[in-house]
Design goal:
- The protein starts with a helix and ends in a 7-residue tail after the last helix.
- The protein has a single domain, classed as outer membrane lipoprotein receptor (LolB), chain A.
- The chain has about 230 residues and is mainly beta.
- The chain is about 10% helix and about 40% strand.
- It contains three helices and 13 strands.
- The strands form two sheets. It has an eleven-stranded antiparallel β-sheet with strand order 7-6-5-4-3-2-13-12-11-10-9, with no helix packed on it. A two-stranded parallel ribbon has the order 1-8.
């Protein structure tokens, strides 16, 4: 269970996590030139997939000439403590997806450690102009935004994405992943991915790095404290 939740945290939405294995069919939308995003910008999202609910915050906490450092903080679901993931990305992660440094994970107040070696790597991608539905004004918990609406289809279903360059650090306002009706007819109900949403809850500035100490080697025993009741 803890491995599924960790994968969900890292992959976030619109990526969907299969009931048995973590799939990585698409990347997180990136609708902003990250070089223009001020360090400290953050965006918080409410995320749901079936009965699973999470809160996540993406924050740009550092930058140098060749990289951007993002921290993804997640809480909720069955997690016993908040989880922070640090990813040091290339200056443009859509064209150079390789991480500059290994992923680091921090569970609550525990010391940071290197993420499990089989942790999926978060991918980022620009919205495909060919999938543009139109320009739409939508209202979410964080406010009302003028957005570009894109729709695409992947192995997990139909993905609707609303983005705005006024929402750093990623530009994501809302993501809705719906089961593909055609695929649903071919698969048993137990194998079908439930609808998933990711919606902007708040934005702000002034984010500071949460992970500041040198990470320790990965320790499977410490991962046992990720999920309550295990």
């Amino acid at each position: 269970m803890r491995n599924v939740i960790l994968a969900l945290i890292l992959l976030a939405l619109p990526r969907a996590v299969h009931a048995q294995t973590a799939g990585v069919p698409v990347g997180m939308p990136l609708a902003i030139d990250m070089a223009k995003v001020p360090v400290g910008a953050w965006a918080e999202y409410s995320m749901t997939m079936g009965s699973i609910s999470l809160s996540s915050r993406w924050a740009l906490v550092a930058r140098d000439s060749s990289s951007n450092t993002l921290e993804l903080t997640s809480s909720g679901a069955a997690m016993a403590k908040p989880v922070v993931l640090r990813m040091v990305l290339a200056a443009d992660p859509t064209t150079n997806p390789k991480l500059k440094k290994p992923i680091v994970v921090k569970l609550g107040h525990d010391d940071p450690m290197l993420a499990p070696p089989d942790t999926p790597v978060q991918r980022f991608q620009r919205p495909d102009p060919k999938s543009l539905v139109g320009q739409e004004e939508i209202k979410v918990a964080a406010g009302t935004f003028a957005t570009s609406h894109y729709r695409d289809k992947n192995a997990m279903g139909i993905v609707d994405v609303w983005v705005s360059d006024k929402v750093p650090p990623l530009g994501v306002v809302k993501v809705l992943t719906s089961p593909d009706p055609d695929l649903a007819k071919q698969e048993p109900a137990a194998m079908q991915i439930p609808p998933a949403t990711m919606e902007l809850a708040a934005v702000g500035t002034g984010a500071k790095p949460t992970i500041t100490r040198k990470p320790k080697p990965y320790d499977e025993k410490k991962m046992g404290g990720l999920v309550g009741g295990e």
